[in-house]
Each structure stands twice: as C-alpha cells, then as structure tokens.
C-alpha cells in the first residue's frame, strides 16, 4: 500500500492471494497479476467477481475480440484486477498497451518459478525482470509457498526488487496430519484408505504417467469415482477433469505433478503420495492442497525402497552434473524426512528455516512414537523361510509362504510342504513386509536385482538363525486407518444432518451457476452455519466467509433451509 516492493512467503492455503487481492480492491488503479495456469486464473476471477470485485484474465483461451473487449473495459476503469500468463510479457505490443493503463501494483504468483534453484523452474518467468525496467516506479509483490533460502535470494535478484519488504509467514499447517506407512501392496492400501474416507475429496500423486493410469484404472474397477490427470492428456481432457473435481463431480484425482498449481479447491481432505516427490518443497506444496478450509486433513505417504532407487537413477541419468548435484542434495533432504525418527513437521519447518524444538502432536511419529522390540523370533522365521524355499522368492512371494497362502506358484514349487509354510499367518502382509525391509537394511538379507529381486541370505544372518545374538527391530509402522479420523470428532461440533442439507443446496446453486461449490461457500462456512444456525440476514452476516455480496446473492436460500430444518426437528 506504501508503494514498496515485497516478497511474501506463505504456505499453500495460507492466504497468499489475499495479500494482493485486498490491496487491489483498495488501490486507485489496476493490479496486474502474473499467474502460471489458465485454470487458476479462471477460478480466482470467478471468485472475485462473485465477491463484487471486478476482475478479468487474458490468456490463450480468449479470442482477439474478447481481449480487445477487456482492454476497453480496462480503459473505462471497469476492472480492478487483470490476470496474465508470463508469456504475454514477451510481446512488445502488449507491454506498450500496459503503459497506457493506470497500474498500481504488479503481483507475481508462484514466484519460485523464476529461479533456477526453484523446484519448478519455468523459462517464461525469466521475462519478468522486464517489469522493473519498463515500470520502475510501480511496486512488485512476489509471492510463493515454497522456497528455501537460496531460492529466496535468487527471486530478489532476478526480479531486481528495490529494498523489498520480506514477509515470511509460518510454514506450519497444523490442521494437516503427516502420516507415513510402509507400502507393501500400494493399490489395495490406497483403495482401503479411500473407502474409509466416504465421499471426501482427495488427490493421489504418482511420478509417472503410466503409474497414474494404472492406479486410476484400479480405483475405478472397484467403483471409486476417480479420474487420471497428466501432461500426456489433451488439454480439453485435463481442463474437464480439473473442472469436475472443483465442482465435486469427481471424488479423487490421480495425477502427476502436472496437477498442482491450478488447484484452488478448499475441501480436499487428503493427499496421498503413492511415490516419493523429489524435493521437500514439492512434497509440502502438494500436501498443502489438502485442508485449505482449515478443517482437519491428512497427508499419507506410502513408502517403498524401490521407488527411492528409481528416483535416484532418474536423477543420475541427467548429463548436467551441476543439476544432478542440486537435485541429489534436494532428494537427500527428502530421504531425511522419510527416515525421520522425530516429529516430521519439525523436519519440514527446520528445512524452511522456521526452527522449532516443539513436537507437533499431529504426525505419525508424535502420535505413535517408534518403539524397538526383540525381533529375533520374527527375523528367524523370515530367514528360515528364505532358506527353506532355496532362496528362490522375492519379498511378495516370501510373505505368501510365511502366511500360508496357497496359490499356483506355491503349489508348483512344492513350497506348501516346507516346514516354514504358514508360520506367520497370525501377522498381516504389511507386518512381514516391514520386518523383511529392516532385515535388508541391516544386512541380513540381500535382493538379487539380476534375478527378479530374489532374497538371499548373507553371512551375517547365521548368528541370528542360530540365536547367538538378540536382534532389536523397530515395531512395524502400519497404516491401519487414517490417523486424523481418530480424533477429529471434537473439531466437528455442528449439526451433521443440516450440514448435509446445506452441501446439497450449495451443489445445486453451483451447478446452476456453472461454478465450483467452494465459490458459493467453503466447507468451513457451511460447518459454522450448521453450528450457529442463523435465522436472519444480520445473524447470517456474522458467519465467517459471508460478506454483503454473498449475503445478497445466497443468504435467503440458505436461511430458508436452516429454518425448515429447525422446524422439522422441533
């Protein structure tokens, strides 16, 4: 507001948009917003217009006639915020057009994209250094959710910001529970998890297009309302998926990181990482798409060593040695998060230089601290079974034999007759997977990569088999259910039947206006309505997320539903 440059770092869902939308509404001229995705522009413009703040966007989805019409509206001072893609600034003609406008502020969203050290570097963003050259007296507000110290410095340099005010908000999103579980049968684990969530919205991230298609197909085969999203799909299909997910017509999106920056959906209740991200920035940005309404949400990370080895191989395949070094350093930080034996949120916050000694109480490590137990007997069962089947099975096959599962492969190998067949049927596959993985890490077992990952005994395994030493193992960390389901009841002190009716009304209004339901009201607002139950306009206006424009537009139908509900229940 004072005309100074600024750099703002806030976590995903922390309110970055408000940092430029509010000044835009108060400043006399026009605010230009540089945004990377068409879908994100459309969502924000739709939302602003329904709040009574005039906004528009110019991107490749518009015709020349539509763009000219927007410039006419700009000339007539009918627009307060104009959203642009960074590619627009390559055009000298377009820059000249901006010189004719009363611009009060430039806002650059996702500013980490300008830095070569950023986890999502985009060449088009490098054009943005022209803003200070062309418009030296207009303040620039750069915003990002995830940037380490190096990236922050690079943003300031690239944009040539003049003695900027730097605002670093807390990166903590305490409503998101961080959970990690061993991945032993990823598809079935994911299906079981989603079914426990009912009809809640979720996102599943995978690292490859093939895996996205594979997971989506598996979920659809058991009746889960889902869709795949990746860069290999036609833009029309991607836009359709994103729009229907925003409108609650699709429950789950299975996606690569291509599905990300454009999501402004507030009621995503969980994010699942089916495979590890390459950086802690990516991880934190992706899980930040859950719980943007402030209500309880969960980030579930399914971990498998094989996924990690694949990522390391892909990083090393790059011919650029400097890039390999940078990416390996970033991935080592990710591995540190994976291997953490202390509060996971501390690991993340310390990485972003927000040092804290206090545990969060809302991650799997805090809720279920790692414990050691005498794993000698469990290890002996595993190692004996490897020996009895002639070291001719991978992890999955060994678990089948230990648990006494009869199938064609077991029968064909006569392994249902070995003495160790079924000695571990009292434990789950996930339990044995966790034990075997530890035995590999500790050097008692090896995987023969040249022979379909068959498990082989090592010299060190003899002492354990003979019982000559006690082997302490970490108690397996199993994903039995969603951690946040266990204690979220106290957060939701509202009339659930009324909440359901209000959601139905919201969906009906949103469909009629062809917008996402959260643009009408988000879940947090509905929960407050279902708790306080306002019966007139004055009471309705006191609800969080309700202003004069929304009261005028939507107040009566919601008050009518509340009154009818109270009448039926009295």
Mean pLDDT across residues? 86
**Which stretches are poorly predicted, pLDDT < 50 over at least 5 residues?**
486-491
Output the radius of gyration. Answer: 27 Å
Number of helices: 25
Q: How many angstroms separate the termini? A: 51 Å
How much beta, percentage-wise? 5-15%
CATH homologous superfamily heading of the largest domain: P-loop containing nucleotide triphosphate hydrolases
- Total of domains: 4
Structural class: alpha/beta
Query: Approximately how much helix is present in the residues?
Result: 40-55%
- Stated plainly, the CATH topology of the largest domain is called Rossmann fold
**Total beta strands:** 17
**Main beta sheet, described?**
7 strands, parallel
Trace the largest sheet across and list its strands: 3-4-2-5-6-1-7
From the coordinates shown, what is the CATH architecture of the largest domain? Answer: 3-Layer(aba) Sandwich
Q: State the CATH class of the largest domain.
A: Alpha Beta
Shape by Cα distribution: globular
Please describe what this structure looks like.
This protein is of the alpha/beta class. The chain folds into four domains: 6-168, P-loop containing nucleotide triphosphate hydrolases (Rossmann fold, 3-Layer(aba) Sandwich), CATH 3.40.50; 176-367, Rossmann fold (3-Layer(aba) Sandwich); 372-470, Arc Repressor Mutant, subunit A; 492-568, DNA polymerase, domain 1, CATH 1.10.150. The chain has 25 helices and 17 strands. The strands form four sheets. Strands 3-4-2-5-6-1-7 form a seven-stranded parallel β-sheet, sandwiched between helices. Strand 3 (55-58), helix 3 and strand 4 (81-84) form a beta-alpha-beta unit. The longest helix has 21 residues, at 548-568. One of its GO terms (molecular function) is helicase activity. Keywords: ATP-binding, DNA damage, DNA recombination, DNA repair, DNA-binding, Helicase, Hydrolase, Isomerase, Metal-binding, Nucleotide-binding, Zinc.
């Amino acid at each position: 507001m004072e005309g100074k440059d600024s750099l703002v770092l806030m976590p995903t869902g922390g309110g970055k948009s408000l940092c430029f939308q509010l000044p835009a509404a108060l400043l006399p001229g026009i605010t230009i917003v540089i945004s990377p995705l068409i879908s994100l522009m459309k969502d924000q413009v739709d939302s602003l217009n329904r709040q009574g703040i005039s906004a528009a966007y110019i991107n490749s989805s518009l015709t020349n006639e539509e763009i000219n019409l927007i410039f006419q509206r700009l000339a007539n001072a009918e627009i307060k915020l104009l959203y642009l893609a960074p590619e627009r600034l390559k055009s000298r003609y377009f820059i000249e057009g901006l010189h004719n406008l009363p611009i009060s502020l430039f806002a650059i969203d996702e500013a980490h994209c300008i830095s070569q050290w950023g986890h999502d570097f985009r060449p088009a963003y490098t054009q943005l250094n022209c803003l200070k050259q062309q418009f030296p007296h207009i303040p620039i507000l750069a915003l990002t959710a995830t940037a380490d110290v190096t990236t922050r410095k690079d943003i300031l340099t690239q944009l040539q910001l003049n003695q900027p005010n730097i605002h670093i908000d807390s990166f903590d999103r305490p409503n998101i529970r961080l959970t990690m579980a061993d991945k032993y049968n990823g598809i079935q684990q994911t299906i079981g998890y989603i079914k426990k969530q009912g009809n809640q919205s979720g996102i599943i991230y995978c690292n490859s297009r093939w895996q996205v298609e594979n997971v989506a197909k598996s979920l659809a085969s058991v009746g889960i309302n889902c869709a795949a999203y990746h860069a290999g799909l036609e833009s029309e299909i991607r836009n359709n998926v994103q729009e229907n997910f925003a409108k609650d017509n699709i429950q789950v999106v299975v996606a690569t990181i291509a599905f990300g920056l454009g999501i402004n959906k507030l009621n995503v209740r969980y994010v699942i990482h089916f495979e590890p991200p390459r950086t802690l920035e990516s991880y934190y940005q992706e899980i930040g798409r859950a719980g943007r309404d402030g209500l309880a949400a969960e980030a579930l990370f399914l971990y498998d060593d094989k996924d990690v080895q694949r990522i390391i191989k892909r990083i090393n395949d790059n011919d650029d040695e400097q890039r390999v070094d940078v990416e390996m350093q970033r991935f080592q930080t990710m591995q540190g998060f994976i291997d953490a034996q202390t509060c996971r949120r501390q690991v993340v916050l310390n990485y972003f230089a927000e040092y804290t000694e206090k545990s969060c109480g809302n991650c799997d490590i805090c809720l279920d601290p790692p414990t050691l137990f005498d794993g000698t007997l469990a290890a002996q069962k595993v190692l004996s079974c490897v020996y009895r089947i002639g070291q001719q099975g991978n992890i999955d096959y060994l678990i089948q034999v230990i648990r006494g599962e009869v199938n064609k492969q077991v029968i064909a190998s006569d392994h249902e007759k070995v003495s160790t067949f079924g000695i571990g049927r009292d434990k789950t596959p996930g339990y044995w997977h966790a034990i075997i993985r530890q035995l590999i890490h500790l050097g008692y077992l090896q995987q023969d990569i040249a022979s379909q990952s068959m498990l082989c005994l090592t010299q060190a395994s003899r002492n354990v088999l003979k019982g000559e030493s006690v082997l302490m193992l970490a108690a397996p960390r199993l994903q039995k259910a969603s951690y946040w389901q266990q204690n979220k009841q106290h957060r939701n002190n509202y009339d659930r039947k009324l909440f359901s009716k209000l959601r139905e009304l919201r969906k009906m209004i949103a469909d009629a206006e062809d917008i996402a339901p959260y643009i009408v009201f988000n879940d947090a607002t509905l929960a407050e309505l279902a708790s306080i139950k306002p019966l007139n306009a004055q009471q309705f206006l006191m609800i969080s997320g309700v202003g004069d424009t929304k009261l005028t537009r939507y107040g009566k139908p919601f008050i009518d539903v509340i009154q009818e509900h109270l009448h039926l229940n009295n």
